[in-house]
Specification:
The structure is a homodimer.
Chain A (H helix, E strand, L loop, with lengths): L7 H17 L6 H8 L6 H4 L3 H26 L4 H18 L1 H10 L5 H27 L7 H14 L12 H13 L4
Helix pairs in contact in A: 1-2, 1-4, 1-6, 4-5, 4-6, 4-7, 5-6, 5-7, 5-9, 7-8
The structure holds a DNA duplex.
DNA sequence: GGGTCAACCAAGCAAGCGCTAGTGTAAATC
DNA sequence: GATTTACACTAGCGCTTGCTTGGTTGACCC
């Protein structure tokens, strides 16, 4: 029970943990499995993390933080039209879902395994990300690009995007850009 | 290790198991917790189910079967227009997500905990349900009601609908009919 | 060249896990 | 009235779990 910093070593261990959590699920991943994957013994693991819970929290935090950073960058880099911003958000979301796939799958599937304390902290991060989305959806509504209830539309869009982790095959014929384009086309009433 | 029938007793036990699986997750739900919830001792549980796995499979089968039945009924009862059929499917999906909420949440979150044998069997059920969707999406495409890639559109729609289990509040102001209506409006290019 | 410190290890504890074996019992069946 | 069946019980086996303890190692610092 020594440190809880974010050393590069810890970052790397977190990345490896994420992969195991995806493969096996959080509860089925034992500290011994984690240690073996990391090339250390199970006891040594608790030098880097207070307990197993903290590893889960670290994985999810890493993924969510990256998503937030990428989304902000995408919005700054793109054209200011409502459609371009909508597309940029969708593209960024799908890209981060791909590059940090393990962390995001864990966040989606194992969120409820978080203890209340960690959940509170990470909720704020997630809310920050989702409010970015609602903002862009608002702009699209005001621009008349899409219609409907702001709350429902943003939930439907998030659902469609997050569901992709269950079926999207990066080695298949469709790029994440294709998906983003098609999704925006579907809700903005233009031909694909 | 006696029977694996589908007696009413077993149905009731399955329903109770579903609730615990949602609350705690499959792996964290112990056979002792299940037994207590059912009002019996842990040993007695194995008179009704071969093992813990079989309880999970029973929960998921129950939910998926109901979804299939409800979807078929909805399609038979509704108007034959592409839009009406699309709406009927969305409404049926949301209703079954609500009435069999526990079973569906388990199916969504714990699918990967199924052993290969059970997974194979249940995959067929799920495929049958999804092919209903693709059929209705096809009709909507042919009718010019929606545009885009058949595969992508059906995945996006399923994602938007399934995601509702994470945020939909049945005691809130919106009915499942509202949701179905809004979703269809969103993708068919009409005002809500 | 003694002190510091992050990183790791070996060994194991207490608790909890899924599941089994063997038995009791009341109702249904012959 | 004997037998079977369905359902429940008690007791516990063999194993795994998350985590702790006490100690070692090697790189860096002054």
């Amino acid at each position: 029970m020594n440190v809880m910093n974010d050393s590069p070593r810890r970052k790397e261990l977190t990345r490896q943990a994420a992969q195991l959590f995806v493969q096996e699920g959080f509860d089925r991943t034992t500290v011994r499995m984690l240690a073996q994957e990391m090339g250390i013994k199970s006891g040594s693991l608790f030098h880097h993390f207070r307990d197993k819970q903290e590893i889960l929290a670290a994985v999810i935090e890493e993924g969510t933080q990256n998503a937030l950073v990428m989304a902000k960058a995408a919005l700054e880099d793109c054209d200011q039209s409502a459609e371009a911003r909508l597309q940029a958000m969708a593209r960024a979301h799908l890209q981060t879902l791909l590059t940090d796939r393990n962390a995001h799958v864990v966040a989606l599937y194992e969120w409820r395994r978080l203890e209340p304390g960690a959940r509170d902290h990470l909720s704020h991060l997630r809310d920050a990300y989702e409010s970015l989305w609602e903002q862009v959806i608002d702009e699209a509504l005001e621009a008349g690009l899409i219609h409907g209830d702001r709350f429902l539309v943003s939930r439907f869009v998030m659902g469609a995007l997050n569901w992709t982790v269950r079926w999207y095959d990066p080695s298949g014929p469709r790029s994440t850009d294709d998906l983003a384009h098609e999704l925006v086309a579907m809700i903005t009433h233009r031909a694909a």
